[in-house]
Amino acid sequence: MIITYAAIDGFKNLSGINFAPDPKYNIIVGKNAQGKTNLLEAMWILSGCKSFRGSKEKDYICLDGSRMSSAVKILDSVREQKIVFEMTGGSNSQKSILLNGVKQKGTRALFDVFKCIAFIPDDTDIIKGSPEKRRNFIDMAASQLNPVFVMHLNKSNVIMNQRNALLKNIAQKGASADILEVWDRQASKEGAVISWLRNEYVTRINEICGRLYRTVSGGTEELTLEYRSNVFKAEDFEKPCGDDAYEQYYRRLRETADYDIRTGSTHAGVNRDEIIIKINGVSAKDYGSQGQIKSAALVMKLAQAEIYMKKSKDAPVVFLDDVMGELDENRQRFVFDMIKDMQVFLTTPNESALLPEIKGKLLHINGGRITEESENVSSHRE
Known about the structure:
Blueprint: E1 2-9, E2 17-19, E3 25-29, H1 36-44, E4 67-75, E5 80-88, E6 94-99, E7 102-103, H2 108-113, E8 116-119, H3 125-128, H4 131-145, H5 148-173, H6 180-216, E9 223-228, H7 243-255, H8 257-263, E10 274-279, E11 282-283, H9 284-287, H10 290-311, E12 317-321, H11 329-338, E13 344-348, E14 361-366, E15 369-374
Parallel strand pairs: 3-13, 3-14, 8-12, 12-13
Antiparallel strand pairs: 1-2, 1-4, 4-5, 5-6, 6-7, 9-10, 10-11, 14-15
């Protein structure tokens, strides 16, 4: 899968961006705050995923602007497709998403069309951040393999919001607690399916992460990932997800119901799961060095890409946002060996910090505009 054309205007500070990317390497060069990351983000949102920077949609439009548009053409193993995302601001703000000229109700359809993986400096939060960071990573990665997972996640989120609202009404306004059972039955089915899908993906990525981390550490360290469900034990996942699993999840929700009512929030279920990440048997979050944490996060993203490539005929598009300059030469070579068959968009303030053999299209960006575009990297690196 490759991006054959990109056109972006009015997205944050970007203006009048039009270019045909190189099918291999695209090196985006510029000083800080010139729009390098914005360019990656403007293409990333066309995958149907939320911004990798946590930006809200209302922030996509430039502060002094009234509209934004981002469009790409994607070529996969079957055909070329076009995605267009447009928004207008102000009191009468509107959003339009077009896939091959057909208006979409939301971003769901994009998720099946455009697959990409982003490496950003904040990826270390997957290791050292909150459990939610790790759950979100696993959920997004697993959803790329099985888009139905997104449906279960969305439905579970709606149910949990309704359940939590009911909990507050019971505690504050004396609403009947009987209806809580209805929501718990629904939450149990969605939660059990999510638990099984999470466990399946963690099992798969754990094997690949172990192999990749041994390589990047020179065989001296071992990385392991373990899914720790708030409801189920490891041996429960040896059986298929069915009525027994739904009932077990339901009982767990009922066990905490009284406490949930007192506090106004749900304390059992997939919203409390954890993914335990260890290096040589010790918690990477609590005891990992900065170098170990960076390497572990990098390996997890590379494992995500490898899993997707094994499942699909098409490789995902890779976005590397100011990551490579922080890696030594050996780790850079390790990364590029892993992604050599993928289209790559790479941002850097200084292209000379990259491996000399990385050649492709060079895009200089300044003040939100591409000021220079060439088919090859600068001459001092040739």
